[in-house]
Records
---
Amino acid sequence: MAVTLNETPSANRLHIGIFGKTNSGKSSFINAFSGQKVSIVADVAGTTTDPVYKAMEIYPLGPCVLIDTAGFDDKGELGALRIEKTELAAQKTDLAIILFCEEEMSQELKWYRYFKEKNTPVVPVLNKTDLYTQEEKEKLAHLIQRNTKEEVCLISAKTGEGIRNLKELLARSIPEGYGNRMITGDLVDTGDLVLLVMPQDIQAPKGRLILPQVQTLRELLDKKCLVMSVTTDQYLSALENLAVPPKLIITDSQVFSYVYENKPKESMLTSFSALFAAYKGDLPYYIEGAKAIDTLNENSHVLIAECCTHAPLKEDIGRVKIPRMLKKRFGEKLDVSLVSGTDFPDDLTKYDLIIQCGACMFNRKYVMYRIDKARNQYVPMTNYGITIAHLTGILEHIALP
């Protein structure tokens, strides 16, 4: 994805999912919580169809994405499709809010257990408190607490009761260490010279940079590094004009070999995609997965998982370049399938290898969900940058965080 430098990607924000039964007040709640009319509110069951994702800044949580979901008790054929979308939202959720509104809470507790199994913090909320007497509120809150062993927040979207307390409780519930991950890890520090080699092609339209480049550059500036950015054709000229070799060179995977062949011996080399393998996923698992490339043959089946959705482009890395590299090595009969966006097969066992992009458009929670699915089905998985580094024989020579 191409972005301007001042855009804040939603994938980097804390994803807060709101879950509950149909007409449990999710849309009214999210509007009251955000202070904006994010979702349509109506008394008709099933008003929320596809999940609504709203990027916001909310004190004291900071930048976050609020996800309004369809009721998990939706009915009928369309209801089943809406529940699938709710399940997808759950896979992206860093912090879950489950709205309770009655004594019958078996479905709420089922979802509570799902999130706990995924190590996702859950905040149970008793909604619509304006409709209950004080005795009824205390009774329901006690029942919820007894079943979840969690602190229960009582709120009313209509009156605003409890909203402030809920925000403070959510802030205390943010996963430990969230937001502390760094793209470049400990590869560079304050004052280090970093050279970014960034090809500008049709995937990065004029006036824009692709998202991994923007995010990496932003982090390097925050680290107070000395940063120089060049296109591939100016790479050698840039090295000649530097008084000292850069400590680190970061490049696009597509020009890995060229940059590696011409880099100073003192300089470390890595790629944006390799950095994102660690930042968004499980780097050791990706490296182990890359070894499966050597076991492929012309009868193998490979899945390319592209995380963003875009119209096919000439010389596209996932649709053209990586399949061409694989078929050149293993034969034209090698079967290469492609999925994009959130499309990802439930059954992965027919594939011998999964190759995912850098996943800059997804939050880490969802990327790890995919990795866990592949791991549980014993299917090796890697990403674009690690794949290209392995195929070009330089994986052991590149710097990894």
---
Amino acid sequence: MQAEVSILNKQLFRHVEVPGWKLKWDWSGDEVIWSMVGAEALQQGNCTRIKSKVLPHSCKKSPEIVDLLLGAPFNLQTTNCCKAGVLSSMKQDPTKYGATFRMSVGKSYTGSNIGYLIPKNFNLGLPGYSCGVPHEVQPSRFRSGNGRRWTEALMSWNVTCTYSQFAASTSPKCCVSMSAFYNETIVPCPWCSCGCQGSQGTQCVKDDKASSLLKLHGEEEGVTSALRCTIHMCPIRVHWHVKVSYKDYWRVRMTVNNFNYAKNYSQWSLVVQHPNLRSLVQTYSFNYIPLNQYGPINDTGMFWGIQYYNDMLLQSGDKGNVQTELLFHKDSDMFTFSNGWAFPRKISFNGDECVMPSPDEYPRLPNGSRSPHPIVRPYMYLLLSFLTLILLIQ
């Protein structure tokens, strides 16, 4: 029996990172995989029961299938294969969110048709993902011949896998800090946002020399991360800075810092929730697309890097950051700088929600001031008072 398997990442903004998917299932009978293109089984398994001159590709009861690497032989490739298991999100790159492979499945003793037993216990081999029970759907259709004829699969099954951030990791992966031009206070990420220094599985590195030694010996010692020592101990920090206020516009600088000495982030993405995103006029050096629009409501958007420019967030160091500036139009019906309105409600990095500061700690406007249009410095108030006093004396 010939079978075709497609893996589709239908998440809007979370992609599958390196090392990629590793699909696993349990056969319901005595099936084996005789051949495969577009992917490969990690283990052939014990094939001593096979009475054939040609051994199957895999005799495992629970095969583990991985994608082929880039540059695989042409005769082993299929459409949408050979990306090392990495899948983009649907919004970020609609051409690379799927993977497909084909296999020939048969009984272990003859290789003949096995009937239509549905495999069970599917697993993507990715932290945080859990898969449901396969269920039968409308058979897939294929074009054949000169393209006018349609053929149908004998049976088609769907398996839905869902993601849980808590199941993937008990600690967050990013945090948010804030600042504004009208307040000298910089609100840092909350203390121990992603863990504390010296916690289990976290290596705290204080300088570049120590990090270089860790890169050489980290794998041998089983170290999975090498984070710069910070109060928050997060691999990623997103800083939101309210930069300037004009008469009809206001500007924000958003910076993403990588504090991990041992990891680059390719095809990174940010999802920001802010009430003024519907009035976003221009984004510099990032791609942007709105999400979850309901009529006039548009408060959530996705940002990601420009290909070959800043789509790779490098390891911690001088180049371990990317940033953009956002220009917003002032909507007179809702615009204000008071009560933390200028700051985001929620930020996610690569699909994982970041730890936000407490609303009580947001940068505040100076006492007695209103939303500036544009800002008026305190010394200007003194100057105006002095001129008024002179006029009164005269």
---
Amino acid sequence: MAQTDLNMLLALDAEGWHALLAAGDDEALAALRLASRHGVPRAQAILAQRLLAGDGVMADPGEAGHWFRLAANNDDVDAMNMLGRCHENGWGMAVDVQMAVYWYRLAAQRGLDWGMYNLANLMMNGSGMPTDRPGALQLYRQAAALRHAKAINIVGRFHEEGWEMEADAEQAFALYKQAAEGGDFRGCFNYGRLLAERGLAEQACAVLRRIPVASTPAFLSNVRGWLAAHAVASLRALASEPAFAGAGA
């Protein structure tokens, strides 16, 4: 690639990389690798994500971890969070929850909603640190203020269960609605569940039908069991719809 082309790659911002890679061709991937080798953190983070997911390349979690680490050490906040995910889940490296805490904390301190959310999850579970539910709630609220749908759903759970506060069913309902509208499949379930409890079965069904689009297989299987045992016929019928019927099969 010509030196002028390399200079262009070195100057690209995140939006520019998105536009360049939209074509999905070999030349775009080669440009991504070239920029990564020349130390461009955003390119390194994008390449790592593609290697982790097998997006346009053969999946290679080990190489993904290498590029996430380089990008994180060069202050790419998304890479910090993803390096935390790799450490937490053992993607391309040994599981090391304390290192996950370290990278999530850095990402959270830089203002990344995903870093806040992931660190809060470890705080809730006491993984890699002492259990700290009030601290977790503070982080979930910070992420929720940035419109992070999963964090909004969990703040709703705090309100519903009365964790660290007085239980408030109306606030929980409002937050679950926001989480569902933001695309969180757990938020869809909680919002649909409360709609059904309020006798709004038709609205509940409409919301619950969104779950299979983004749900994990395990969660979808649990939802199918919940639907199949529901007292309301229209909700029971959802369990037999194609999107739900294959769950757990």
